[in-house]
Amino acid sequence: MRNRYIYITLLAVLGWNAESTAQNGTRQVPRLVVNITIDQLRSDFLEAYTPLYCSDGFRKLMEQGAVYENASYPMQQTDRSSAVSTVITGSVPYFHSIIGQRWINRETLLPQLCTEDPRQNGAPSPANLSVSTLGDELKVATHGEARVFAIAPVCDAAVLSAGHAADGALWLDEQTGEWTNAKYYSRQTDIPLLSTNKLYEVRDYIDHVIWTPFGQESDSGFKHTFKGNKKYQEYQTSALINAHITDLALSYVINQMMGADLVTDLLCLTYYAGPFNHQPVTDCQQEIRDTYLRLDRSIGQLITRLEKSIGAGNVLFVLTGTGYCDPDYNDYSRYRIPTGTFYINRAANLLNMYFGATWGQGRYIEAWYGNELYINHKLLEQKHVKLNDFCLQAKEFLLQMEGVRNVYTSLQLMGGDNSLITKVRNGFHPSHSGDIIIEVTPGWNILNEDTGKDRLSQASTIPFPIILYGAGIQPVKVQTPVTTDRIAPTIARAIRIRAPNACNSEPLF
């Protein structure tokens, strides 16, 4: 294990090292990579508030960075968990296994969190992430010497972006109001975590917090307080959480001496830019505006402090979004826009009745979640029914239902590459996804009456960028469409390590 205090003496000769590197025509490897994922970032909002930004935040990134304006995810449906996993692994759910924040556990037939680890009594861990991450490969390449940390408002974003070999993953516990590090990770973070909670513990002051618009009088605009059993969940979706992320990031850079020597370190940050308390955007436009303005200041503070302490050419910042946003559940029928409700539980029950009349009574569809149906494979074996025959008949049956646009089966998705279903296949994983995936017509709601869970089917894209800044990156704007699975190989190339083991995408440059 290296002694970082000894390496501080090397800082005095870094100027000579940079000059020598330039003379030899070789780009210097950054000492710190800051990988920023902004949950629900939208280009339209990012651009709308440009005149109000400070000079060191979003404005600096957009004017002095390499901006890929048309970014997207290479799978059909994205949420925070699958997006973070795709960015950090350079692959898709078909390989990295994280199809979403939750899926049905085939043993219990109950929803399971993506970070839930039965081997740790359900405690959070990256065990369900089935491939290596950028941080993992950095640890391997440096024989464990690199420092790798992740900080996020919520557990799944922190743990998944940290990966398997990281030193720590911090998030705000929505039950206690404390900043928490998963026990899975190194004990080395325990001491700074104690001091962190003393400085930034939310529970000590949340009852007295009043969120009002940035730079305005408290009696103008909105005013939010945080009370009740869900006060910490609400705080996680407020603009105030992002300042904590930045403060924690700077604290850990100092305490863990990240970027203090010639071994590259990795800091993964997740910020929040979605609507407050997951309300419709139309109902909280002032809060959205305030979120972007405060986030701009937080990112500006992060950039300024790190460039000053480590050196402008020694830090590489990479920023992107999660490619989705909370749906607005508008009453389309009021405006004569085609809409409807598809009842996933009724579809499953009808299939069970249909196959019961064909092969005998039984629970052929044993579970359903979102728009996916899970088949009882043991029952098919008992009835001597071939899975392929079952899937084909189920598909034909479902396609006759109103609101169903298409139906995909696990056999179809695993049977080979087809350009027409590639994005569906990329978001599928044999162990976690359902056996039958129903594509519901956009504008329709998918309702599970058993749980009350409601989801709006959408096929529209959410525009967001990929921005690289620092470490010798030249300013440029690129309009050619790119996908986020290219971020990991881009960083890997910049710091001269192997890309994650399931990554087969080309770097962005």
List the helices and strands and how they pair.
Elements (H helix, E strand, L loop, with lengths): L3 H4 L6 H10 L8 E8 L3 H6 L9 H7 L1 E7 L7 H10 L3 H4 L5 E4 L4 E4 L20 H8 L6 E4 L3 H8 L5 E5 L6 E3 L8 H11 L9 E2 L12 E2 L5 H6 L4 H15 L9 E8 L12 H26 L4 E7 L18 E4 H16 L5 E5 L2 E4 L1 H6 L4 H12 L5 E6 H5 L7 H5 L9 E5 L3 E5 L4 E4 L7 E7 L5 E3 L3 E2 L3 H8 L15
Parallel strand pairs: 1-10, 1-11, 2-20, 2-21, 5-6, 5-10, 12-17
Antiparallel strand pairs: 2-19, 3-4, 6-7, 8-9, 11-19, 13-14, 14-16, 15-16, 17-18
Helix pairs in contact: 5-8, 11-12
Could you characterize what this model shows?
It is a single chain. The protein is of the alpha/beta class. The protein has helices at 4-7, 14-23, 43-48, 58-64, 80-89, 93-96, 134-141, 155-162, 190-200, 231-236, 241-255, 285-310, 344-359, 377-382, 387-398, 410-414, 422-426, 487-494, and strands at residues 32-39, 66-72, 102-105, 110-113, 148-151, 168-172, 179-181, 210-211, 224-225, 265-272, 315-321, 340-343, 365-369, 372-375, 404-409, 436-440, 444-448, 453-456, 464-470, 476-478, 482-483. The strands form five sheets. Strands 1, 2, 5, 6, 7, 10, 11, 19, 20 and 21 form a ten-stranded mixed β-sheet that branches. The protein has a four-stranded antiparallel β-sheet with strand order 13-14-16-15. A three-stranded mixed β-sheet has the order 12-17-18. It starts with a helix and ends in a 15-residue tail after the last helix.
